[in-house]
Design a protein that fits this description.
By secondary structure, the protein is an alpha/beta fold. It has 12 helices and 11 strands. The structure holds thiamine diphosphate, iron/sulfur cluster (SF4) and magnesium ion. Magnesium ion binds next to helix 3.
Length: about 350
């Protein structure tokens, strides 16, 4: 529950020294998460930040909230456990492209599929930063690194495609430098009930500097990215004269005013459409063929795992003759009864005293 006390981003800052490299994109992400939390009036004590391992995962130390810097790739599993154990908490998972999509790939996709009510902030710098520059599942094809001295020979994951493929209900994207947009998408993610995945294109100045430069530099940004807004025409460009249309099954970039094309021909963004076909196309757009999509790409309501578990526990407790003081039998019995004894107790439907 939030309150109406006026918070500022300082309320979410811990006393720890921030140890990311000067110029690292992580600093901006930290500041914008804190600003979003202040604007959402979240009480620091109702927030839990869970991370795995990586530079990005050091985030938890810098937050004046509850937090757990866990183990590599297991942030989703632990965040899920926290949320199911206490659904009142606002749980934010901080993860990197290696943490979420390599060692943690399995946990990530199932957390998304289950639609666990988490805000998952995925820092995508296309590299393992903490371990000093090995290629990651999002590194571009041919990327040269310490573990791929002759260039990678594999296609990268696209986090949006993976999220939507895992039946994700919410996917948004921003860039570390786009402070206002980051705050907006974090707030949207926080207000969304279910697994909200936010990919942030983040710069690692040391091991993968300027990996997103083609679309993030000031001069070209407006022509090479498109900020999607639900219900608005998909237009972009410095002069707002470019737009997206459908040609057959493909998206096409067009210029408004050329070849008889008017604003009315441009597609309207519907982030809330249950069918994910268009969201997938938008999430997959890559420069130079297309502008890279930013903002909320997909946001559809669905059943939420932790809420369903809560309802199920209530229903089962109400209907079940076995009274276990609210403790799930195998948990309560662990170490106290043998499997046979447990089976006998369970089948006899008697009250079990522990
Ligand atoms: C079980 C295990 N395997 C490997 C590692 C080594 N390790 C630590 S962080 C990391 C990759 C982190 O990359 P990413 O999630 O992209 O975070 P970044 O540092 O780029 O923010 C690896 C491989 C580990 N700590 N634990
Ligand atoms: S190594 Fe890269 S990702 Fe890690 S703190 Fe430094 S700049 Fe940031
Ligand atoms: Mg990384």
């Amino acid at each position: 529950m939030s309150d109406l006390k006026q918070y500022t981003f300082v309320d979410y800052k811990s006393s720890m020294n921030v140890r990311w490299c000067p110029g690292c994109g992580d600093h901006a992400i930290l500041n914008t998460v804190q600003k979003a939390m202040a604007e959402l009036h979240l009480r620091p004590e109702e927030v839990v930040v869970i991370s795995g391992i990586g530079c990005s995962s050091r985030f938890t130390y810098y937050m004046n909230t509850y937090g757990f810097h866990t183990i590599h790739g297991r942030g989703s599993a632990i965040a899920s456990g926290v949320k199911v154990a206490n659904p009142k908490l606002k749980v934010w998972q901080i993860t990197g492209d290696g943490d979420a999509l390599a060692i943690g790939g399995n946990h990530f996709i199932h957390t998304v599929r289950r639609n666990m009510d988490l805000n998952i902030i995925l820092f995508n710098n296309q590299i393992y930063g903490l371990t000093k520059g090995q290629y990651s599942p999002t590194s571009k094809h041919g990327f040269i690194s310490k573990t791929s001295p002759f260039g990678t020979v594999e296609e990268p994951f696209r986090p949006g495609e993976l999220t939507i493929g895992a039946r994700g209900h919410f996917f948004a994207r921003s860039i570390d430098k786009e402070l206002k947009l980051c705050v907006e998408v974090f707030k949207e993610a926080a207000n969304f009930e279910g697994a909200a995945v936010v990919e942030i294109l983040q710069n690692c100045v040391i091991y993968n500097d300027q990996t997103h430069q083609a679309i993030t530099d000031k001069e070209h940004k407006e022509d090479r990215t498109i900020v999607l807004e639900h219900g608005q025409a998909m237009i972009f460009g410095k002069s707002k004269n470019k737009g997206l249309m459908l040609e057959g099954l493909m998206l096409k970039v067009v210029e408004i005013g050329k070849g008889g094309i008017t604003l009315d021909d441009i597609l309207i963004h519907d982030a809330e459409c249950m069918d994910s076909t268009m969201h997938l196309k938008l999430a997959n757009m890559e420069y130079p063929e297309y502008p890279v999509a930013l903002g909320v790409i997909r946001k559809v309501k669905g059943e939420v795992y932790d809420q369903q578990v809560e309802r199920q526990i209530e229903r089962v407790q109400k209907d079940n003759p076995i009274k276990l003081s609210g403790i799930w039998p195998p948990m309560a019995m662990f170490g106290k009864l043998s499997e046979l004894q447990f089976k006998a107790c369970y089948e006899s439907r008697h009250e079990i005293c522990i």
